[in-house]
Amino acid sequence: MHREDHPNRAVALPVSRRWLVAAPAIVLAARPAAAQLAPTPRQTRGPFYPATRPTDSDLDLTQVAGRQGRARGEVIEVTGRVLHARSGPLPGATVEIWQADADGRYHHPRESAGAADPNFQGFGAVRSDGDGGYFFRTIRPRFYGSGAGMRTPHIHFRVLVEGRPELVTQMYFPGEAMNARDGLFRSLSDENARDAVTARLEGGAVPRFIFEIVVA
Ligand SMILES: [Fe+2]
Questions:
Q1: Would the pLDDT of 198 be above 80?
Q2: What is the mean pLDDT of the chain?
Q3: How many Cβ atoms sit within 10 Å of the Cβ of residue 36?
Q4: How far is the CA of 143 from the centre of ligand 1 (A)?
Q5: Distances 157 to 46, 56, 94, 203 between C-alpha atoms, Å
Q6: Integer Cα distance of 64 and 54 in angstroms
Q7: Separation of 125 CA from ligand 1 center, angstroms?
Q8: Looking at the structure, do residues 12 and 88 belong to the same domain, yes or no?
Q9: How far is the CA of 104 from the centre of ligand 1 (A)?
């Protein structure tokens, strides 16, 4: 509900409706239930979730604490809210991301393509704020693999809300031609599911990708 919709904001109600203002409990009971949001589709965790948690895991993946250099690649922002399907914003949720670097490499013992960018943090974890919001500064990951194993650029997400099962999913980039050839992206059941894991791009000096996460 938008604050502006609250009935107590009404200034000049017809006499016949004034009793509503005096009886807010009845007004709330009579209001139709908020539309339920579709939960974000789950996606595989993949093999590259950090084997050991890095010492620096803050919201800025473009710089590693104690190092002078900056991560290679195009700097982007990834932001959005954690929402409950029925009750809306979820403050205090843990949001973790992990992703490949500008050359498509992970910081992980199972990475076979060579060492990842030492100035790229590769993993970040934050808590959602009072409005369910989260924010990361990172770089746009490159695709990796080939043939049937090719992975279009994506960012892995793990969302932890107290008392609920974890949500593991992946965020995809809008307008990315490789999405159509990615087996995991294509495995999503329909266009709505694919839209739900595809971020929305907002312009600006730094490209900002909006990714809303809905927990069942
Ligand atoms: Fe991946």
A1: yes
A2: 89
A3: 12
A4: 9
A5: 11, 17, 10, 23
A6: 10
A7: 17
A8: no
A9: 9
Measured in Å, residue 24 CA sits from the centre of ligand 1 at 49
pLDDT tens digit sequence for 48-91: 999 999 999 999 999 999 999 999 999 999 999 999 999 999 99
97 and 168 co-located in one domain? yes
User: From the CA of 190, how far away is ligand 1's center (Å)?
Assistant: 21
Residue 105 CA, ligand 1 centroid: distance in Å: 9
Residues 11 and 104 in one domain: no
pLDDT tens by residue, 182-197: 999 999 989 999 999 9
Residue in the block written with tokens 């890095």 = 54
Count of the separate structural domains present in the chain? 2
How much distance in Å is there from the Cα of 22 to the middle of ligand 1? Answer: 55
Task: Provide the percentage of residues in the chain whose pLDDT is more than 70.
Answer: 84
20 plus 88 within the same structural domain:
no
Highest mean pLDDT (candidates 1-5, 20-24, 124-128): 124-128
CATH of the domain at 92: 2.60.130.10
Cα-to-centroid distance, 78 and ligand 1 (Å) = 16
What region, left, alpha or beta, does residue 2 occupy, with left being phi > 0 and alpha being psi -120 to 50 degrees?
beta
Ligand 1 mean position to 156 CA, how many Å?
Answer: 6
